[in-house]
Amino acid sequence: MARTDAVVLGAGIVGASIALHLARRGLSVALVDKGGPGEGTSYGNAGVIEANTLLPHPFPTSFGAIMKVALKRATEANYHLAFLPHIAPWLLDYRANSSIERRIRYANLMRPLFANALPEHETLMQEAGATQYLRKEGWLKVYRNKATFEATARERALASEFGLPHDALDRDGALALEPALAPQFVNGIYWKSSASVTNPLAVTRAYVARFTALGGVVLTGDARTLHRANGRWRVETDEGPVDSREAVVALGPWATDLLKPMDIDLPLEVKRGYHLHFRPRGNAGLTRPVVDADLGYCVAPMEQGLRLTTGAEFADRDAPPTPVQFDRLLPQARALFPLGEQVEAQPWMGSRPCFADSMPVIGRAPGKTDLWLCYGHAHWGLTLGPVTGRLIAEMITNATPFCDPAPYAAERFTR
Ligand SMILES: Cc1cc2nc3c(=O)[nH]c(=O)nc-3n(C[C@H](O)[C@H](O)[C@H](O)COP(=O)(O)OP(=O)(O)OC[C@H]3O[C@@H](n4cnc5c(N)ncnc54)[C@H](O)[C@@H]3O)c2cc1C
Predict the structure, then answer these.
(1) Does 373 share its domain with 258?
(2) Best of 251, 358, 388, 392 to mutate for ligand 1, by most ligand atoms within 8 A of CB?
C-alpha cells in the first residue's frame, strides 16, 4: 500500500501543474489518470496562453446571430437538438452572465490569474526544460466586418485601463504581422502580452517529467474508486491502492463522474471542440495563432502542422463526434489561411469543462475533509493550469495564497 501526502486525480495540464507545484513544496504526491498524461482535453487545444483575456465569450444577443446558430448555419457554434432540454438551465445562466456588468466583474475577479498565467508557465517551463515550446509572439484576431471590429471598443478600452498591450490594426498592419494571410478582412487586433505553445501535449508531458524527477509518481487508475479508508483518501490503481491525506480533483470535463455520486453536484457542462491539422501551402506559414473573429475559429501553427480549432458545440460529452462546423467554415478558412493538405482523416474532439460564469472552481470541496477541487477552466485551461496549480498548492500547504481565492470557491454555487 502506497501512502502519500496528496493524490492528484487527472493528469491534464491542470492536474500536472498541481502535482508539480505540490512536489516542489516537498509533498509526496501520486498523479493518477486513466490514460496517458496530457492526452485528454489538454491534448488538442489551440495552444494559446491567453494572458490578455478580460471578457468571457458572451451568449449571442442579436436575433440574427441566434437564428444562425438555431438554423445550424453558424460556423462558431453547433448543438445537438436532443441535448437542449438538458442544457437549457445552464444556457440561461450563461446568458445571465453575459451582461456587460457581469463580464467586467469577471475581468476583475479573474485578472490575478490571467496576469500571472504566462510568468507561471515560464517558471515551470524553465524548470522542466520546456522553453523550446514557448513562442512569445502574442496572437492576432482578424475581423472581416468593420462592425465586429468596432464592437471590440469596450474590450480595448478595458485593456488599456488594465495596461494590457495591444495594437488595433488596419488590414496592412495585420498583413505585415502575418503575410501569408489573404486580405479577406478589414482589421486586426494584435494582443502582445499573450504567448503560445507549439505542442500542448509535450508541455504537459514535460511538467509531468519534472514532477517525477522531484520524486512524484504517476499511476494508472480510475478516479471514481476514490473513497475514505482509515481516515484517509484511497484510490485504486493498476499498481495497487494509494492512501493519501489530501485528494485533489483535476478531472476537467470528467470531474462530475466522481463528484456527483459523492453528492457534490456543481453545474458543470461542456463545450465540445474539434481540431484538424493542415500542411502549410508551399513555404507559407504563420508566426502565431490567428483567430478569424467573425467566424469563430482559430488557426495555430503547431509542430504537427497548422491546427484549426473550432468554437463550441453543445452536446453530451460522450455522444459521437459531429464535426459539421468544419463543413461550414473550411471554404472560408482555406481562402484566408495558407491551408494545404489535410493531415489526418478524422478530427480530434475534446470537451471544454465550463461553468456558466466561465470561472473555474478552485478550493476545498464543500463539506468534505481534505478534498480539493480544481476544474472548470473552460476556454483557458492551458493558460491557467500552472497559475491555478500554484494557487491550490498554496491553499493545501497553508501558505499565503498569492491572490484571494474566494471568488473561485465552489460555495458560489451552493450558497
Ligand atoms: C478546441 C479547443 C481549443 C482550446 N484552445 C485553448 C487555448 O488556446 N488556450 C487555452 O488556455 N485553453 C484552450 N482550450 C481549453 C483547454 O484545452 C482546457 O481548458 C484544458 O485542457 C482543461 O485541462 P484539464 O487538465 O482540466 O482537463 P483534461 O486535459 O481533460 O484532463 C483531465 C484528465 O482526467 C483524466 N480522467 C478522466 N476521467 C478519469 C477517471 N475516471 N480516472 C482517472 N482519470 C480520469 C483524463 O484522462 C484527462 O487526462 C481549448 C479547448 C478545446 C477543446
Answers:
(1) yes
(2) 251
* Contact by Cβ (8 Å): 110, 53: yes
What pairing do the DSSP bridges indicate for beta strands 29-33 and 217-220?
Answer: parallel
Which amino acid appears at position 93 of this protein? D
Give the integer Cα–Cα distance in Å for 375 and 244: 20
Report the separation in Å between the CA atom of 357 and the middle of ligand 1, taken as the mean of its atom positions.
Answer: 18
Do 235 and 349 belong to one domain?
A: no
What's this model's pTM, rounded to 2 decimal places? Answer: 0.98
Distance, first Cα to last Cα, the chain: 39
C-alpha cell at 403: 491572490
C-alpha cell at position 266: 456543481
Angle between helices 153-161 and 100-128 (to 10 degrees): 60
| Res 68: pLDDT | 85
Pair 377, 244 in one domain: yes
Residue 143: pLDDT band by 50, 70, 90 thresholds? very high
Over residues 261-316, the pLDDT tens digits come to: 999 999 999 999 999 999 999 888 999 999 999 999 999 999 999 999 999 999 99
Decide: 224 in ligand 1 pocket, CB within 6 A. Answer: yes
Q: How many CB atoms lie within 10 A of CB 153?
A: 10
Task: Judge if 303 and 157 occupy the same domain.
Answer: yes
Q: How many domains does the chain have?
A: 2
Q: Which atom of ligand 1 is nearest to the CA of 350?
A: 53
Given ligand 1 and candidates 17, 18, 45, 197, which is best to mutate, with the most ligand atoms within 8 Å of its CB? 45
DSSP state letters, 120-136: HHHHHHHHHT-GGGEE-
Residue 379 lies in domain: 2-42+201-266+357-414
Cβ of 379 below 6 Å from ligand 1: yes
State in Å: Cα 33 to ligand 1 middle.
12
Give yes or no for a contact between 9 and 249, defined as CB atoms under 8 angstroms apart: yes
